[in-house]
Design goal:
The chain is an alpha/beta fold. The protein has 4 domains: 152 residues, Flavodoxin domain (Rossmann fold); 100 residues, Translation factors (Elongation Factor Tu (Ef-tu), domain 3, Beta Barrel); 97 residues, NADPH-cytochrome p450 Reductase, Chain A, domain 3, CATH 1.20.990.10; 144 residues, Nucleotide-binding domain of ferredoxin-NADP reductase (FNR) module (Rossmann fold, 3-Layer(aba) Sandwich), CATH 3.40.50. The chain is built from 23 helices and 21 strands. Strands 1, 2, 3, 4, 5 and 6 form a 6-stranded parallel sheet that branches. The chain has a 6-stranded antiparallel sheet with strand order 12-9-16-7-8-13, covered by helices on one side. A 5-stranded parallel sheet has the order 19-18-17-20-21, with helices on both faces. Strand 17, helix 17 and strand 18 form a beta-alpha-beta unit. The radius of gyration is 27 Å and the shape is globular. Bound molecules: flavin-adenine dinucleotide (FAD) and flavin mononucleotide. The site of flavin-adenine dinucleotide has 23 residues, from strand 12, strand 13, strand 14 and helix 16. It comes from Hymenobacter nitidus. Its EC number is 1.8.1.2. Keywords: Amino-acid biosynthesis, Cysteine biosynthesis, Electron transport, FAD, Flavoprotein, FMN, NADP, Oxidoreductase, Transport.
Length: 606
Amino acid sequence: MSFLSHDQTLPLGLDDNTLQRLTTGLNDQQLIWLSGYFYGRTAAGRGEVQSALQAQAAQPAAAARLTILYGSQTGNSKKVAQQTAEKAKQRGVQVTVQDVNDYATRSLKTEQQLLLVVSTQGEGEPPVAAEELHQFLLSNRAPKLPDLRYSVLALGDKSYLQFCQTGREFDERLAELGAQRLLERVECDVDYQEAAQTWADRVLEVIAAEANAGNAGSSHGPLTATETLVASAQEAYSHHNPFEATVLEKIQLNGRGSSKETYHIELSLADSGLHYEPGDALSVVPRNGEALVAEVLQAAHLDGAAPIQLSGVEFELGTALTQKLELSVLTRDVLERYAAAAPQHKPLADIVTDIPQLQQYVYGRDVADLLREFPAELSAEQLAAVLRPLPARAYSIASSLLVHPEEVHLTVGAVRYATHGRTKHGVCSSHLADRLAIDHTARVFVERNEYFKLPQDAATDIIMVGAGTGVAPFRAFVEERVELGAEGRNWLFFGNPNFTTDFLYQTEWLQHLKRGTLRHLDVAFSRDQAQKIYVQHRLLEKSRDVYGWLENGAHFYVCGDKARLGSAIQEALKQVVQQEAGCSAEDAADYLRALKKQRRYLEDVY
Ligand SMILES: Cc1cc2nc3c(=O)[nH]c(=O)nc-3n(C[C@H](O)[C@H](O)[C@H](O)COP(=O)(O)OP(=O)(O)OC[C@H]3O[C@@H](n4cnc5c(N)ncnc54)[C@H](O)[C@@H]3O)c2cc1C
Ligand SMILES: Cc1cc2nc3c(=O)[nH]c(=O)nc-3n(C[C@H](O)[C@H](O)[C@H](O)COP(=O)(O)O)c2cc1C
């Protein structure tokens, strides 16, 4: 195939053979993308694309209107929706992009083309923003939607058993209501960017093809590659290209004899250009410990020097197990692939098809346990193909950049437990706790949390409820508010097992309290007395003031353990409202729902 038509000549120094060599192995889509990318980088490209976009903006809509909705907890779905909208605009499609939280459900009936980008939260639940639409669509009040064409992009994480559950539910329900798919649903794991971009390109191609078919005979010709494809600026650091941040400080925050092991870790961001806001998280790309890698190799009867390929790149098995593949956690997809590769184990096949059994099986087991309990003579290649890429772990940022320029601080709880005859260590927390010393580097990137943010109006009060490492973002919040001279009052509820050993950042909080930069501090040390006391009990004790602050417009934040904190705090808050407003349980639930909708009740639970 030649890239050149007869009347084309190549610029200085380029010939057809060179181009062939440079582009061997690329598929059509990649070639088209590159043509747009390089064109867009030239001055002419920048100018022409701009004028093409302006010209398109001035043209009347040629095709059906496109609405892109996103339901997002931390901003990933929002980012994808906005990128998709940008691509759609470049194709000349009339597009509206909207947070599903602000979407009037009655508008559904009038939609023609709908793209929905939605994550799954909790244990297979919709993000708060999408709760209302989800409830409405699944109810018997949902209208028939025979004129709607749609596609769902589901964001999720395969380490959760209900993988992409919300996206699935939306997709299946829309089909049940008579809507027709523009493209099959795509489900994305934590590394969602590539799959999301492919989904966006493919669904927009379908939309463009339909518009062009509908346009036959109109004055607008089909859209061309240069109009459609201009590369968006890549975010500098990511899972695949993390920043090497030097460890500046590492302090054990718990006192001797504590049941917890929590580290305050300070990292340098010097020369990275990385920026974050309080409420964002820092993702750390971990490595598996030597001991676990050795356990896995032994259980698999394999040699660490055996060569394998991952995505076309050659590794020694030992290196891949250390750096690239998840070993400390078992997920459904891994079990499914292993069961398929070892069909002789009938009990394993049964576990894989039964969610409650699966849930019980994976809890507290790792890859070495699986290999020992269900032995199979897999080759090194087969084992690598069964395992899952090692995901980064997120940590709430515990510092304000205003106070600590070019630094980021984390509060990391070491995960350690003993099950099935071995002591286990969480891969990332133990990487940070045990294997990273001062002056070593951690591989990191910033994970924005779009919604877990301080109020825009600095005069607004905030109530923060944090248990254990859940206090981390509140250190950043208070630092930032003090630095900005925010007038709003700050109130912290903090919980952990024991006062003497587990009062994280005690000196700092007491100083804030003394200076008035923390108006109230309420602590719950659960194990300091015979009867357990948790932060939710403290909230109830202070119900009058809590309600008063909320009525005065306060924002309410919760951070920490999902299982222990999430629903307990919501229940406590409903009781506070019921008691102080003298209303029914239903009205109190409505009050909480309204707070969520206004994004004044915000959770960062994990
Ligand atoms: C937005 C966000 C913010 C976060 N912020 C923080 C933070 O500020 N500080 C912090 O410390 N963490 C935080 N986390 C959690 C963090 O990302 C990791 O999940 C945590 O450090 C554990 O990861 P790991 O790699 O060490 O453990 P993994 O290797 O992932 O192992 C964890 C797994 O071990 C198993 N397990 C754990 N304990 C037991 C037990 N007792 N018995 C049996 N099995 C068990 C469970 O299956 C669990 O899923 C946050 C998470 C998110 C999503
Ligand atoms: C507390 C919590 C619970 C989650 N629960 C699930 C789940 O049940 N199923 C799933 O597939 N993904 C789950 N996820 C993963 C998210 O869907 C994933 O991180 C997604 O990229 C978030 O997108 P968003 O920022 O648009 O909300 C969960 C994430 C968190 C932090």
